[in-house]
C-alpha cells in the first residue's frame, strides 16, 4: 500500500514539476518544441530574470548574511567579509561595510557573467539564447565562489570603482530608455488622435493632443517643484546652488533647442528629460558629504534607494520586453536572423534526406555570412544595470558621514560622478 502511495505522489509531483517548467519556459518565450532552438526573446527574458535573481541575492547578502558576520564560527569567512573595512571602525560601520561587500559580491558575479556572455554573443549571435540551464548553474557557482573571496582588494575598492564607472554609463543608457518610452508614448497618442479624426470626425482627436499637453504640464510642474524643494533643503552651499542652477538652465536650453532645431523631437520627450535631469541632480546633491550642504547626511536615504531601484527596474523591463529594444540596440537583431533562417529551422522533406541535411557545408557558410546580432549589446546594458543597483544599495559605497572606510572622500567623488553623468546626458 505504501508503495502505491509513494508511486502516486511521485507521479503527481512529476506532473507538477513538468507543468511548472513548461509554464516557466513559456513565460520566458520558449514555447517551441525541443528540436527548435529557443527564440531571441527567450534569451532576453532569461537574462533579465538572472539579473533580477542577482538583485535578490544581493539583498539577502546585505540584510541577512552581513549583519551576522560576527556570529560566523569560521574565522576566515568573517575576516574575508570585513577586510578593507578598517581596523579601528565601529561595529556599526563594520556591519554596513560587510553589507556593502555582500552587494558587491552578487553584483560582481552578475557583471562577470554578462561580460563573458556578451563576448560570446559577439562571436556567435545565438549564444544568448542557448544553454540556459548551464548558465544558471555557472551564475550560482560564481555567487557561491565570491562568498569566500576577501573584500580587499577585489571588491573594496576594486569592483566598487568598476561599479561607479558602470553606473555612469547606465545614466547615459537610461537616458535612451526614457527617450524611447517618451517617443513611443507621444507617437501612440498622436496615432490615436489621427484615428479619431479619421473615424469619428474632425476635431475628435483633440482630446489626445490635449492629453499630451496636460502630461507635459504635469511633468514640468513636478520638475519645477522639485527644483524649488532642492533650493530650500540643499541650498546651504555654493556647490549645491550651482548644480541646481545648471540643471535648471540646461533643461531650459535643451527644451528650446529640441523644439526649434530638431524635427523629430516633441515636448513630451523634453519634459521627460527635464524630470530625469532633476532626479539626477537630487541624487548628486544628496551625496554631498558636507553637513551644511546636506541636512540628511546622517540619515539613510530610503527614497534614493527606492528611486534608484525603480530606474534599474525600468531598465530591466525595457531591455526584456520592449518591442523596440532590438531597434534601439542597433545592428541586426536576433529576431531578424530567426526570420532569415526560417527555412533552415523548419526542414522540408526532399527525397531520402531532409533539405538542410543534403549539403552539410552549406549551412555553415550561410551562417557565417550573417551579420552578428545585437545580443552582446543587451549583455552590456545588463552589466551596467548590475553596477547601478550595486551603487544604489550601497549609497555609492558610503558607510559613514564622510564616506567609507576604504576611501574617506568617496561621497564627494560619487557626487561629482553623478552630476557629471547628468551633464553628459543633457549634452547628448
Kindly describe this structure.
Its main location: membrane. It holds the Pfam family Serinc. Residues 1-21 form the signal peptide. It is a multi-pass membrane protein. It comes from Cyclostephanos tholiformis. This protein is mainly alpha-helical. The chain has one domain (41-323, 375-427). The chain has helices at residues 2-27, 40-65, 75-82, 91-123, 132-147, 154-200, 206-234, 238-260, 267-285, 302-321, 325-329, 334-340, 342-345, 360-369, 375-394, 410-427; strands at residues 349-350, 353-354. The chain contains 16 helices and two strands. The model is unreliable at 19-35, 323-372 and 400-410 (pLDDT under 50). The longest helix has 47 residues, at 154-200. The radius of gyration is 26 Å and the shape is globular.
Specify the structural class. Answer: mainly alpha
Kindly give the count of domains. Answer: 1
Instruction: Identify the quaternary structure here.
Output: single chain
Rg to the nearest angstrom? 26 Å
Number of helices: 16
- Rounded to the nearest angstrom, the distance between the terminal CA atoms is 73 Å
Which strand-content bin applies to the residues?
under 5%
Which word captures the global form?
A: globular
Report the sheet with the most strands, covering strand number, pairing sense and barrel closure.
2 strands, antiparallel
Family: Belongs to the TDE1 family.
GO cellular component, one term: membrane
Keywords: Membrane, Signal, Transmembrane, Transmembrane helix
Main location: membrane
Amino acid at each position: 500500500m505504501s508503495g502505491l502511495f509513494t508511486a502516486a505522489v511521485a507521479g503527481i509531483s512529476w506532473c507538477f514539476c513538468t507543468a511548472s517548467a513548461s509554464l516557466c519556459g513559456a513565460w520566458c518565450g520558449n514555447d517551441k518544441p525541443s528540436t527548435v532552438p529557443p527564440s531571441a526573446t527567450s534569451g532576453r527574458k532569461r537574462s533579465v530574470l538572472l539579473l533580477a535573481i542577482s538583485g535578490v541575492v544581493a539583498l539577502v547578502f546585505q540584510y541577512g548574511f552581513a549583519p551576522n558576520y560576527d556570529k560566523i564560527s569560521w574565522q576566515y569567512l568573517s575576516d574575508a567579509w570585513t577586510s578593507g573595512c578598517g581596523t579601528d571602525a565601529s561595529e556599526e560601520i563594520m556591519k554596513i561595510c560587510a553589507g556593502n561587500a555582500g552587494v558587491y559580491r552578487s553584483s560582481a558575479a552578475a557583471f562577470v557573467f554578462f561580460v563573458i556572455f556578451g563576448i560570446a554573443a559577439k562571436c556567435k549571435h545565438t549564444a544568448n539564447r542557448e544553454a540556459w540551464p548551464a548558465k544558471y548553474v555557472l551564475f550560482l557557482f560564481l555567487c557561491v565562489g565570491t562568498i569566500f573571496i576577501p573584500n580587499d582588494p577585489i571588491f573594496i575598492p576594486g569592483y566598487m570603482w568598476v561599479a561607479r564607472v558602470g553606473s555612469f554609463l547606465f545614466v547615459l543608457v537610461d537616458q535612451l530608455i526614457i527617450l524611447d518610452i517618451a517617443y513611443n508614448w507621444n507617437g501612440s497618442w498622436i496615432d490615436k488622435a489621427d484615428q479619431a479624426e479619421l473615424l469619428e470626425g474632425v476635431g475628435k482627436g483633440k482630446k489626445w493632443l490635449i492629453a499630451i499637453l496636460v502630461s507635459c504640464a504635469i511633468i514640468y510642474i513636478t520638475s519645477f517643484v522639485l527644483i524649488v524643494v532642492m533650493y530650500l533643503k540643499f541650498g546651504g552651499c555654493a556647490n549645491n546652488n550651482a548644480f541646481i542652477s545648471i540643471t535648471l538652465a540646461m533643461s531650459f536650453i535643451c527644451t528650446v533647442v529640441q523644439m526649434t532645431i530638431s524635427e523629430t523631437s516633441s515636448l513630451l520627450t523634453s519634459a521627460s528629460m527635464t524630470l530625469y535631469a532633476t532626479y539626477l541632480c537630487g541624487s548628486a546633491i544628496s551625496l554631498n558629504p558636507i553637513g551644511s550642504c546636506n541636512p540628511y547626511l546622517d540619515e539613510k536615504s530610503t527614497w534614493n534607494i527606492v528611486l534608484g531601484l525603480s530606474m534599474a527596474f525600468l531598465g530591466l523591463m525595457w531591455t526584456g520586453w520592449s518591442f523596440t529594444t532590438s531597434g534601439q540596440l542597433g545592428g541586426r537583431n536576433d529576431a531578424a536572423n530567426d526570420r532569415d533562417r526560417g527555412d533552415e529551422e523548419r526542414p522540408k522533406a526532399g527525397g531520402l534526406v531532409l533539405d538542410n541535411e543534403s549539403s552539410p557545408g552549406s549551412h555553415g557558410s550561410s551562417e557565417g555570412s550573417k551579420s552578428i546580432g545585437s545580443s552582446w549589446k543587451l549583455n552590456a546594458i545588463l552589466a551596467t544595470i548590475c553596477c547601478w543597483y550595486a551603487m544604489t544599495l550601497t549609497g555609492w559605497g558610503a558607510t559613514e558621514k564622510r564616506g567609507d572606510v576604504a576611501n574617506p572622500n568617496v561621497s564627494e567623488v560619487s557626487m561629482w560622478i553623478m552630476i557629471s553623468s547628468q551633464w553628459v546626458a543633457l549634452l547628448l
